[in-house]
Design a protein that fits this description.
Layout (H helix, E strand, L loop, with lengths): L1 E2 L5 E2 L4 H14 L10 H8 L3 H8 L2 H21 L6 H18 L1 H9 L6 H23 L6 H24 L4 H22 L14
Antiparallel strand pairs: 1-2
Helix pairs in contact: 1-4, 3-4, 4-5, 4-7, 5-6, 5-7, 5-9, 6-8, 7-8, 8-9
C-alpha cells in the first residue's frame, strides 16, 4: 500500500496503471495550463475513460498535483545526486537539470513558481520543497553540510528566488541558450557565496567561486 499526493491510500496492484496515467498527464500538461484542459479533453487525449482518472485521482486537481509531484521528484532526485563531482561541476549539473526541467515542463513550472491560483497550500508546499532541495544541494556542495547559519540560508534562498524569476523570463522569451543561462546563474551564485563570506567569515567562499580562484 502507498499514498497519493493527498495522502490517500493506493493499493499496490494498480500502481503501474496509475504511473502510466501520470506519464500521459505529464505530456498533456507540459505546455498546457491547468484551466485549458477539461477532464473530457484529458480522457480523450489519453484514450481512457474519464472514470478511470477519477478512480485513481478523485479529481482533475488531484491528477494535476500528482503529475507535478512526480515530475518535480525527478528534478529533486537529480539535483541531490552527483556527490562525487567537483563543486563547480555539481552546481553546473544541478542548474542545467533545473533549466532543462523548466524548459520541458513550462506550464507546470509556471504553476509551481506562481504558487497556483490564489493561495494554494499544496502547490506552495511543492514549491517550498524544490527550494529547500536546491538550497541544501548548494550548501552541501559549497560547505560540505546542510545545517548552515540563518544568514547563509537566507542568502541562498534569495538566490534561488532570483533563479525562479530569471527562469520564468527565460522560458517566456527563449532568447538565450540553456548553456548561457546556466553559466549566468552559476556566476550570480558565486557573488552570493562571496557576500556570505563577507558577512559571516565562518562560511568561506569555495575556491571555484573565489575571484582569485
Amino acid at each position: 500500500m502507498t499514498s497519493d499526493v493527498l495522502g490517500r491510500a493506493v493499493p499496490s496492484a494498480p500502481l503501474a496503471r496509475r504511473a502510466e496515467l501520470i506519464t500521459i498527464g505529464r505530456k498533456l500538461f507540459a505546455d498546457t495550463s491547468y484551466d485549458a484542459l477539461s477532464m473530457d479533453d484529458i480522457a480523450r487525449q489519453a484514450h481512457v475513460a474519464k472514470g478511470l482518472i477519477y478512480y485513481y485521482f478523485q479529481s482533475k486537481r488531484g491528477y494535476y498535483l500528482a503529475i507535478i509531484n512526480d515530475s518535480v521528484a525527478d528534478l529533486v532526485t537529480f539535483a541531490a545526486s552527483g556527490l562525487e563531482l567537483p563543486q563547480l561541476d555539481r552546481v553546473q549539473r544541478t542548474m542545467d537539470s533545473y533549466l532543462r526541467w523548466a524548459e520541458h515542463n513550462q506550464a507546470a513550472y509556471r504553476t509551481i513558481v506562481s504558487g497556483g491560483v490564489g493561495f494554494d497550500t499544496e502547490v506552495h508546499a511543492i514549491r517550498d520543497g524544490v527550494r529547500a532541495a536546491i538550497v541544501a544541494t548548494i550548501a552541501d556542495g559549497a560547505y560540505g553540510r546542510t545545517d548552515i547559519s540563518r544568514l547563509a540560508r537566507m542568502a541562498l534562498f534569495g538566490w534561488v528566488c532570483s533563479v525562479e524569476g530569471a527562469t520564468l523570463e527565460w522560458i517566456s522569451t527563449s532568447d538565450l541558450s540553456r548553456e548561457t543561462m546556466r553559466e549566468l546563474l552559476v556566476k550570480t551564485l558565486g557573488g552570493t557565496l562571496r557576500a556570505i563570506e563577507e558577512l559571516d567569515p565562518a562560511y568561506p567562499t569555495p575556491k571555484p567561486a573565489r575571484r582569485d580562484g
